[in-house]
Amino acid sequence: MKRFRNICLIAWLAAILVLVFYAAPATAAPPKQKNIILSTTTSTQDSGLLDVLIPIFEKKTGYFVKTIAVGSGQAMAMGQKGEADVLLVHSPAAEKKFVAENYGINRRIIMHNDFVIVGPPSDPAGIKGMKSAAEVFKKIAASNAIFMSRGDNSGTNAKEKAIWKAAEITPEGQKWYQQTGLGMGLTLAVAAEKKSYTLADRGTYLALKKNLGLDILSEGDGILLNIYHVVEVNPAKWPKVNAAGAKAFADFMISKQTQKIIKTFGVDKFGSPLFFPDAGKKEELLGK
Amino acid sequence: MDIIVEGIKQAFILLFTLDREVLGITWLSLKISGSATFLSMFIGVSVGTAVALNQFPGRRFVVSLINTGMGLPPVVVGLFVTIFLWRNGPFGFLEMLYTPTAIVIAQTVIATPIVMGISLAAIQSLPANLRLQILALGATRLQMVWILVKEARLPLLAAVMAGFGGVISEVGASMMVGGNIKGYSRVLTTATVMETGKGNFAIAMALSIILLLLAFTVNVVLTQIQQRDRPR
User: Fold this and answer.
1) pTM to 2 decimals?
2) Is there a contact between B69 and B116 (Cβ–Cβ < 8 Å)?
3) Is the CB of residue B184 less than 8 Å away from at least one CB of chain A?
4) Rounded average pLDDT over B71-88
5) CB of B59 within 8 Å of any CB in chain A?
6) ipTM score for this prediction
7) Residue of B nearest to A1 (CA)
8) Which domain holds residue B149?
9) For range B176-194, the mean pLDDT
10) Which residues of B touch A35 (CB under 8 A)?
11) Domain ranges within chain A, ordered by starting residue
């Protein structure tokens, strides 16, 4: 009897495990060519914008979007290898290079918001209210207050480097310059813990503000503009790229309906929009 | 402190209101890690037993390899599986990167050496005379192996539990090969990382608590089987 019960138990267990195993592939593998790999920055995902837009796109077109949220630098590296179909990124200088080297096509403007320089309310470097970002960075460097950098080649990191360049300072290797190598949210958390300064996109900062204890100390300089573009990966370079899907997604991002959603996104939660739609505008004229 | 209390509260709210997204993520975590554990149980126990019962040149080297594999870092596995599954990589034609199946593959690679290493030790620690006795009583070789496996049931189930524990808690490989895609390849650990990054610490706490509950439940079931009266 005991033996029989044991065999029953083993059979029962095996049946459950087999069921579990065969259920897994059933959810996998949506139809071919339907998959679009969207490589994007963390800010579009962390702000929740893509959670709103992508279901609409999928319903409308029948495509299935695989959103891979990484820094802009890594997103473009994936595009360069043909491992993504379409990019939504915010690192204009690198994007231009990406397109010039024929890795990407049809770079189109989607929206913008801006970066802000945040720091502890005590403001040890005394930058509060200063307008010029380069001057702010100079003052932080001179005061030896800690500056927390993303250090991950993201769009934010690229912008930060551009400001250091404008300030004519080489921060790498300095004692007060620390690199987290983390996303924006976690970098803000580290900056808050260490009572240091950092550069953040306004959307992520607003979303995390209540837990941080960091204040916006400088904002509004033209250099702090944060512009998002959509770039399709060049199918001539990588034949496996889903070119039709990439184009459909890019077209969807600049469509009137999407731009309208972007315009009002976040108003209910933060009292002000997180992004400003810009489809069709000239990049050079923004913020003027 | 507030965050811990708030997290526990959130966990129960999410569980008892049957939040569809969280239930989906939990179910997917169980399915993926369960499948990976099941596969690694097959490979791990059979290879582990084979190595334990046979003598061959280079055996110590093989055992060292298996034991090293028990500490295989998930991110390393994730990176290798990603490179292999890239569209333009050697297995690109499978179009498997950023799917739940890819996570099952990575987790199987992580769990198999764990199960294999413990199985090997378990079978090898059985008294050598037992084998002789079983064979002397007229059992075939296959029957002998089966009896030995049953005899080592306790440590073998411990091996399975260790394998499951290794993969259900793993985040690096799941993030890399699964991509943390909402409603498709997002599991409890990757969701926790994402929510932490978003600053939703209470939800991240809630997901962690659900993960702990899930791991506990599975281990309770396995322990029940392990601790049953042994047939004498």
Assistant:
1) 0.84
2) yes
3) yes
4) 93
5) no
6) 0.81
7) B231
8) 19-185
9) 92
10) 95
11) 35-112+227-281, 114-224
Whether B214 is in a domain gets the answer: no
Kindly state whether residue B63 falls inside one of the protein's structural domains.
yes
Question: What is the spatial distance between Cα B61 and Cα B111, in angstroms, rounded to a whole number?
Answer: 20
| CATH number of the structural domain spanning residue B171 | 1.10.3720.10
| CB contact at 8 A, A227 and A89 | no
Question: Does residue B218 fall inside a structural domain?
Answer: no
pLDDT by residue (tens digit) across A137-153?
999 999 989 999 998 88
Enter the CATH code of domain A35-112+227-281. Answer: 3.40.190.10
Q: Is B12 among the domain residues?
A: no
Rounded to an integer, the average pLDDT of B178-184 is 91
A114-224 has the same fold as A35-112+227-281: yes
- The whole-angstrom separation of Cα B68 and Cα A279 is 54
Whether residue B88 and residue A240 make contact (CB cut-off 8 A), yes or no, is yes
What pLDDT digit, counting tens, does each position of B93-148 carry? 888 999 999 999 999 999 999 999 999 999 999 998 999 999 999 999 999 999 99
Say if B201 is an interface residue toward chain A (CB within 8 Å).
Answer: yes
Q: Where are the beta strands (DSSP E) in chain A?
A: 35-40, 64-69, 86-89, 104-119, 147-149, 177-179, 197-201, 215-218, 225-233, 276-277
Superfamily of domain A114-224: Periplasmic binding protein-like II (3.40.190.10)
- CA-based nearest distance B34→chain A, Å: 7
Interchain proximity B34–A20, CB inside 8 Å? yes
pLDDT reported for residue B97: 92
**CA A273 remoteness from chain centre:** 17
Q: Is B73 helix (H, G, I), strand (E, B) or coil?
A: coil
Interface of A with B (CB under 8 A): 2-3, 6, 9, 13, 17-18, 20-21, 23-25, 27-29, 32, 35, 37, 42, 45-46, 51, 54, 64, 66-69, 81-83, 182-186, 188-189, 207-208, 211-212, 238, 240
Answer yes or no: do A20 and B31 touch at CB < 8 A.
yes
Could you give the number of structural domains in chain B? 1
